[in-house]
Design a protein that fits this description.
4 helices, 6 strands, alpha+beta, globular, Aminopeptidase, homodimer
Amino acid sequence: MLLRPATRADLPAVLALLADEERVVDPASVTVTAAYERAFADIEADPRNEMLVLVDDSAGGPVVGCLQATYIPGLGKGGAERALIEAVRIRADRRGGGLGRELMSRAVARARARGCALVQLTSNKSRTDAHRFYASLGFARSHDGFKLTL
Amino acid sequence: MLLRPATRADLPAVLALLADEERVVDPASVTVTAAYERAFADIEADPRNEMLVLVDDSAGGPVVGCLQATYIPGLGKGGAERALIEAVRIRADRRGGGLGRELMSRAVARARARGCALVQLTSNKSRTDAHRFYASLGFARSHDGFKLTL
């Protein structure tokens, strides 16, 4: 498996993963709107954001997982960056085989190599399976996550 | 009250607020290390990060509150940015008078004006007073927040 920043050519596959809740979405069926083009270009151009894709290089290179990492400068933690992880996905037909662990472990190693003092993420309170998964990776469920839709 | 991005001259006051858990810390007593200088310069130079300070312009301009906002591009929410808020502080001797509400309301308005689709934050599970405060501002406590110290 290979973890690398997504390129524009991966955008349909990433959007398919983000739309995939229960079953595989065909990247060819995804409409890449101008707004998604802009958002992806913003991520790609920003040195503190990256959309990472997990690629099965033994099977022709399909994207089977993704996450977005944001590296946030701050005045806590002795002035070190923290990494925020969002949009963690493994393709529906590839779950349960350890790919999520591989994706997250590599993203954490990447944050550590960059000098981050902390990795943080939030997970919907209903997703108890995901909570066990993050706890098994060493994450502490120490906070409540609040969202306000504008 | 005035809300504005912090300048380098505000850095001792902001570090004093961040060190202030229960009682006021004198900005003159704060050591501004090279690491904090760098971190603040990183925030100030990044168009997707800002350290906002709440200033009492009727009382000689002291900084009485702060928060950091990070504007995150993403492929959810139709490609709109989301705002992450961290490091929310009101100076210990000015709490209980509505300044926290003013600080947060203005930061939310700022995110809305920028076109953000969502504002999000996390709060330690022990801080039930803060949870009531965020709920009263319309935030939904929908997620659990996970942290991994590196």
